[in-house]
């Protein structure tokens, strides 16, 4: 699955709850270490999730603080590393859409 195909869905989900594209980008950058330019480059390249995460400059060291359930699955218990990173991102977008503060979402 191409990250660029799911990215607009993340934005739509956030915007339905009065959040912004900029906040979605901030969450993605926090998780992956991409700069804004790097994130936009990956979107334009239409890379798949595996490539997107493999080329991420640095997965945030606080990723282990992301806990909870997405689609009935506890994100901290997902065994496949790629799927876990995808679920972490889903969880962060869910928290954004649910109105959590950026400080809490970014585990500050």
UniProtKB/TrEMBL annotation:
Pfam families membership: DUF2200
Top-level division of the source organism's lineage: Bacteria
Protein name, as recorded: DUF2200 domain-containing protein
Organism: Usitatibacter palustris
